[in-house]
Specification:
CATH topology of the largest domain in chain A: Rossmann fold
CATH architecture of the largest domain in chain A: 3-Layer(aba) Sandwich
Strand content of chain A: 5-15%
Largest sheet of chain A: 6 strands, parallel
Low-confidence stretches of chain A: none
CATH class of the largest domain in chain A: Alpha Beta
Largest interface: A-B, 57 and 57 residues
Structural class of chain A: alpha/beta
Shape of chain A: elongated
Mean pLDDT of chain A: 91
CATH superfamily of the largest domain in chain A: Response regulator
Number of helices of chain A: 14
Oligomer: homodimer
Strand order of the largest sheet of chain A: 2-1-3-4-5-11
Radius of gyration of chain A: 26 Å
DNA sequence: TTGCTTTACGAAAACGTGGTAGTGTTGAAA
DNA sequence: TTTCAACACTACCACGTTTTCGTAAAGCAA
């Protein structure tokens, strides 16, 4: 139950000053070899490690990155964290994670909590509620205090900062185009309510692909779902009417639910119904049939976001208050992973 | 680009002492009402918030919890984090997460990094490599420094500390018993290499259930897998021989792979092959057929672990160095979730 | 005036660290 | 003998906060 040893204690024990101890441990030439080695040996014996908090206070940098995401039990987000953590670790940073639970208030609270010195910078993805409200004052505030923020995936144009996104529109376009190429004409889009920025963009890509191929855009084929559990009814009704022969779903949960519903009704996938999902997750890979998806490498996004943030942090350090805020938006490439749910 | 305001700056601006500002903001009666209100107004205007790092240094507590887990892109672990975060948040704690990547060295490194003042206590699950090596010095060390540790799921008897586990043996027993009850006689166990503590326990439960029902324990029906990708071959060979009519898999990835393999061979699940998996995750729920599982509520484990840790942290605070280390091990209940993969 | 209490505030220490600027001693060159 | 440099070390400050202790000023009784 011995508390961690401090410079002061070592100093007292060896009857030298704190400075001497500190310098000895940092191998300063100011200290004579004899004393230096004695201190080092003593410190090693007691397993001295400098206190991070004291260092943070002194250096005004914590070497940790705050991550704020809507949820963590979520394949995409956890891969992003994984990606962030890899790069952070390489550079000696820790990550502290807060969950907004898709709530605006929690997002604000968490940001305020972390912004008071706990971290050097943020990597975040907006909560649904925040996107809905369009209130970003908490983020602006943090940025104004000189704390760098990198946003990913669920971003907003209302905030100027570094961003990492995928080209949702182009990716959706590619997916829908591939359905069209395989002869599908009645393509449904199963999406979320559209205030979530990415949902909107994917819808745009869907629409553009249809129009570019001379297929009329039919409002009835856009199925907006907020709750997965209720979607089955809607889907089965439409399937019953044979209203569509292909589906582009904005996430894999929707896709697998649709496939299950179709199977129950005796429809064959992909023969009777082709399915493509956004976000390549674990479900798509292991479901039966496995699902063709648009890959969206969370890991790469995380890597990139962390790199951008750390780069800014280290640069800031050098030239103090130089205001060269040339924010960039990185676009991570996507590609179609063909599996059994399409032909 | 204005930096966060500090007590000192407020003091200077209002021409009072730092102490006066501090006391005013904490509504101390020592300070006259006029001054107090003036300071409060000023602080509010400039959105003063005390610096967490300084507070941590002074109070010798960081109000954050370190979590060390093998991986994060993993349903079970992310639900645990979710559970921890809920409780932590309620009590004003943040969580900082480090990934050991199932590597001993990374686990040690991460623990050392966090142990130097960054956090108040640990919640962790051992990496495979650590379990294999049986080297727990890094954990002992942390505990000896008076930092509380709560282990969950992958624990060890070699360390004395609070633990949260499920009764792996009983749960496995229940699962196998239910297969026996439905008339299965040749039950295979698909497991990982057995130095991982939980794999061992589940095997024990499997064996006991068989023996209790007068079914001979057949070594050949225990299939040990380290890499998911290679298991398909082994499985298909055994299935071909009709060596078993039921499978108890220690995780859902194994289960779904087995089902896929069986389906390819024309076997019907559950008619020809019944399957039960450990760990109720997203795959089991959404695969076709959906998989009967032993629920293992990560969220509850996280809740419990966080509660135990925080309780210890707050207690410690009161009575300083009282050494009442009555460590407990909480067992989270499991239950069988019946789905389509069994009859 | 003296002595005492109350009010209202300030000084300083402490948490642990690291860097800058000394300080005193020794030895050697001028 | 003086002066200067090298050596080996210490003092002190700052980071931002809280808290303990101290004290000046004011009020009041004797």
């Amino acid at each position: 139950m011995k508390r961690k040893i401090t410079l002061k204690q070592i100093a007292k024990e060896l009857d030298v000053s704190i400075s001497t101890v500190s310098k000895s441990l940092r191998n300063s030439l100011e200290i004579g070899e004899e004393t230096r080695l004695k201190v080092q040996a003593f410190a090693k014996f007691y397993n001295y490690k400098p206190n991070n908090i004291a260092l943070s206070l002194k250096n005004r940098k914590t070497k940790s990155i705050g991550i704020i995401i809507p949820e963590i039990v979520h394949y995409f987000f956890s891969t992003v964290i994984n990606g962030i953590e890899q790069v952070a670790n390489e550079h000696g940073y820790s990550v502290v994670i807060c969950l907004s639970d898709d709530s605006f208030d929690k997002e604000v609270l968490n940001m305020e909590m972390l912004a008071n010195g706990s971290i050097d910078g943020f990597i975040m993805s907006l909560s649904k509620e925040t996107q809905f409200k369009g209130d970003f004052h908490h983020i602006t505030e943090v940025i104004n205090q000189g704390m760098p923020v990198v946003m990913f995936d669920r971003v907003t144009n209302d905030i100027l900062c570094d961003k990492v996104i995928i080209d949702d529109k182009a990716a959706a376009y590619e997916a829908v185009q591939s359905l069209i190429d395989s002869g599908r004409k009645k393509i449904a889009l199963v999406t979320t309510v559209d205030y979530v920025s990415v949902g909107k963009l994917r819808t745009d890509g869907y629409e553009k692909a249809l129009l570019d191929n001379g297929i009329p855009f039919n409002e009835d084929l856009i199925i907006k779902i907020e709750d997965v559990d209720t979607c089955e009814i809607t889907i089965s009704q439409l399937l019953h009417d044979r209203a569509f022969d292909a589906v582009f779903a904005v996430n894999e949960l929707f896709a697998v639910t649709i496939i299950k519903t179709a199977s129950k009704m005796g429809l064959k996938v992909p023969e009777d119904l082709a399915v493509i999902a956004f976000t390549d997750g674990i479900i798509s890979k292991y479901s039966t049939p496995s699902i063709t998806t648009v890959s969206q490498s969370g890991e790469k996004m995380g890597n990139k976001a962390a790199k951008m943030l750390i780069e800014r942090l280290e640069a800031e350090h050098d030239d103090d208050e130089e205001e060269n805020e040339n924010y960039t938006t990185e676009v991570i490439e996507t590609h179609l992973i063909k599996r059994e749910s399409t032909d």
